[in-house]
Amino acid sequence: MKPRHRRFAWIGTGVLALGTAVALVLNAFNSNLVFFFTPTQIVSREAPVDRAFRIGGMVEERSLQREDTRVRFVVTDTANRVTVDYVGILPDLFKEGRGVVAQGRLGADGVFVADQVLAKHDENYMPPEAAEAMKKGAEVSGSLSKTLRAPAANGSP
Amino acid sequence: MIPEVGQFALVVALAVAILQCVVPLAGAARGNAVWMALARPAARVQFLLVLIAFGVLAHAFVTSDFSVAYVAANSSRALPVEYRFAAVWGGHEGSILLWLLMLTFWMLAVSFFSRHMPETMVARILAVMAFVSVGFLLFLLLTSSPFDRLLPAAPDGRDLNPMLQDPGMVIHPPMLYMGYVGFSVPFAFAIAALLGGNLDAAWARWSRPWTTVAWVFLTLGICLGSAWAYYTLGWGGWWFWDPVENASFMPWLVGTGLIHSLAVTEKRGAFKVWTVLLAIIAFSLSLLGTFLVRSGVLTSVHAFATDPRRGVFILGFLALVVGGSLALFAWRAPRVGLGGRFEVVSRESALLVNNVLMLAAAGTVALGTLYPIFMDSLGLGKISVGPPYFEAVFVPLMAPALFMMGVGPLARWKQASLPDIALRLRWAFGAAVLVAVIGPIGAGGWSVMVALGLLLAAWIAVAGVASLWQLLEGADASDRWWERLRRIRRVTPAVWGMLVAHLGVAVFVVGVTLVKGYESEQDVRMAFGETVAGGPYAFTLRDVRDGDGPNYRYQRATVEVSRDGRPYTTLFPEKRVYRVQSNPMTEAAIERSFTHDLYVSLGEALTPTAWTLRIYYKPFIDWIWAGCVLMALGGLLAVIDRRYRRGRGTA
C-alpha cells in the first residue's frame, strides 16, 4: 500500500468512526433528554404527553397517601398542583413540605405516573428544579410563600 | 495558637512553590545548574510544609477544636475518632488541602525517583508541578482556608455528613485524589518535553510508570466510590452516571488511552504528539472534575461549596492551565515530530483505534455531563441526561474497543497480517462464541445483550491466553507444548500486568452483563412473620427493634433467609437517624457470595408491625469490583518491571 493510500485509509476510517459516534450520540441524546416542567406548566398543558419528563416542586402538606408500596402525593409550586402516583419505596429524605423532583409520564387523567422520585441527601438542600418551580409558582400566584426554603446559592456558575 | 501554625505553613509553602516554579524554569532556559538544582529541595520543603498544615488540621479534628469553623462544620464530639480523622476531607476546604497534600507528595516522589533523568528535565517537571501547586495554594488561602476561626467557639460541631461516616469513605477520597493529582506528573512530563523539544523513547519510559501508578489509584478510587454507593445509598445501584462519578470517569478513560499510547511511544517512537495531547487532556479533565465537584455547579452530596468565588477561581485556573498548555502544544508540537511509521494492520493501529474510542467515550460523557450545566447557566431551561443516554452510547462505543483488546496483543508491531491473526485466534473465537451461546442459558435465559457481553468477556480472556501462548513460542514454531510452558518464567512483569489488567476488564464485563441481565428487584410490604420469595430464596421479616449507636439512633430489622426450605442466613438492615443532622439513613444488609449478592434494605414503617422492604438479588455484582481490582493489580505488576529501574548508565 502506498503512503498516500494509507493516509486516505486512515482519514476515511477516522471520518467514518467520527461520523458514527456523532450520529450515535446525537440520536441517543435526542431521545434521552429529560426536560423539566413545573406544575403550572403541566396544568396549562405545556408538558408533553408522549415522553417522560421531570416535575419539581414541594410536596403538599398532608397530601401523602399510602397503600402498601404504592403512594400518591401532590406536588405544588404554590400556584398549581399535580397529583403524583408512584409504586416503590420513597427516598430517605422525602417529606411533606419539602422539595421533590419526580421523573415519569403524564397520564390521560392528569395524574403524573412517576418511575423515579428524587430527594437528595441534605435536609437543607432543595433540588434546583424544585427551587425553580417554587420561584416561578410564586411569581404566578403573586406572593412568595413564607415556608419556602431558600435554595443553596449554587444554581448557575 | 496551633491552627495559625497551619495557616502560616501554607503561606510559606506558597512562597516556596513560587520559587520552585520560577527559578528552575529560568535555570533550565539558561542552562544554570545551580538554579535547576533548587527544584528538588524546594519540592521536599513544600511537601513538609503542606504536611504540617494537614497535620494541624487533623489535630484540630481529633481534639475537637470547635473554634476552627471548618472543624465545627464537619465534626462533633460524639463522632468516633476514626471518622474525626476522615472528616478532615469531609468538606470543601479539607478536600482541597488533601488535594494539595497529594500534589506535593507526588512532587516529593518525583524528586526522589528521578536520579537517572537529565537535570533540565527534572527541573522543568518540578517547576510545572509547582505552578499547579501555586494555583491551589492561592485557591486555598484566598477562598477556602480550613483554618478560619469561629469566635466564640461552638460548644459542639454540626457533625460529619452521615453519608460519609463509613469505612469506604475514609479511603475513597485519598485514593481518588492520588489518581486525579497523579496525572499532574505525566502532564508535567509532557509540558517539560514540549519546552525542551526532546521527546524520545527514554522520555516515554520515564513517564510510563508514573502514569500507570496514577491510573491504578484512580481505578481503585472509582471502584471504592462505586462499592460505597452500592451499600450506602440503599438502592443497590453501583453506577449512576451522576456528574460526580462522570467527573472521575472522564480522566480515567483518557488515562487508559494515555497508558497505551505511551507504550507505543516507548516501543516504536510513534504517537508522540498524540501522547502529549492525551497527557494534557487527562490532567485537564482531572482539573475539570475538581471544578465540577468543588465549585457547586452540580448539586449533589459532593458539592459542599456554595461560594461562587470558588467556582470562578477554579474555572479561571482551569482556563489558564488548559489554554496555556494547548497553546504551548500548538506552538511546540511540530518540533516533537510524528515518529515511526506503521501499516494499517499492525499493533499500532489496534492501539490507535482503541485510543480514539476511549477519547470518544470520554467526549460523550463530557457532553452528557456538561450540556445540562451549559443550558442551565445560559438560562435555556433545566434538562437532565440520565443513564439511558450513557448506556445507549457506551455499548456501541465499547463493544468494538473490547473486541480490539483481543486482537491488539497478538498483532505484530509495524506490520501484521490479518490471516495470521485470524489463524492464531480461531480457537479463541470459537471458545468465545461457545460461551456466548451456552452461557446465557445456564445463567437464566438467553438474551442478545447477555450473549454479547459474555462473548466479548470470553473473547478478551481467551485471546489473552492465546497471546501469552504466542509469546512463549520459540525460534522454531514446531516446539512441543511443554517446551513452551517452560519459557513462562521469561515472561516479564509488564506482560503479566497487561494480561491481568485485560482479564480484569473481562471479569468486569461479566459482572456488568450478568447484573444487568438477571438482577431482580422488588419493593414489598411485609408484616412481621411474613415471607416473600426471591429466586430460590425466601425472606421472612421477624421484627424491627430500636437501639442506639455512638451518634445515631437506629431501627434494626431481623430478616431470616432460607434457601430451598433450609435456613441460609440472617440479615439486619437498619434505618438510622443521626442526632446532630437528624437525617435518616438507610443501612442495607448484604449477604455476599461468589455468584450473587442478597441485598435487603428497610423502607418505611407502614404500621407498628409492617414495613416496606427492598429485596434485591444481584447476580455476579462483586465481579464488577473484582474486575477493577484486577485492572489495578495489572497496573502494579507493569510498574514493578525491572526496565523502569535501570539507571542512566544502562538505559
Percentage beta strand of chain A: 25-35%
CATH class of the largest domain in chain A: Mainly Beta
Report the strand count of chain A: 7
Number of domains of chain A: 2
What does the main sheet of chain B amount to? 6 strands, antiparallel
Low-confidence stretches of chain B: 300-305, 647-651
Largest interface: A-B, 46 and 59 residues
Give the amount of beta strand of chain B, in percent.
Answer: 5-15%
Mean pLDDT of chain B: 88
- Distance between the first and last residues' Cα of chain B: 52 Å
The gross shape of chain A turns out to be: elongated
Number of domains of chain B: 4
Which CATH architecture of the largest domain in chain A would you pick?
A: Beta Barrel
- Count of separate DSSP helical elements of chain A: 3
The separation of the N and C termini of chain A measures: 53 Å
* CATH fold group of the largest domain in chain A: OB fold (Dihydrolipoamide Acetyltransferase, E2P)
Molecular structure report:
The complex is a heterodimer of chains A (157) and B (651). With 157 residues, chain A is α+β, with helices and mostly antiparallel strands. Chain A folds into two domains: 33 residues; 106 residues, Nucleic acid-binding proteins (OB fold (Dihydrolipoamide Acetyltransferase, E2P)), CATH 2.40.50. Chain A has a five-stranded mixed barrel with strand order 2-4-5-7-6. In chain A, β6 and β7 form a beta hairpin. The longest helix of chain A has 30 residues. Chain A is elongated. The C terminus of chain A is likely disordered. In chain B, α7 packs antiparallel against α13 and α9 packs across α13. Chain B is built from 20 helices and eleven strands. The C terminus of chain B is likely disordered. In chain B, strands 3, 4, 5, 6, 7 and 8 form a six-stranded antiparallel sheet that branches. Chain B has four domains: 165 residues, no CATH class; 207 residues, no CATH class; 107 residues; 101 residues. With 651 residues, chain B is α+β, with helices and mostly antiparallel strands. Classes of the chains: A alpha+beta (157), B alpha+beta (651). Chains A and B meet through α1, β1 and α3 of A and α13, α14, β1, α15 and β2 of B.
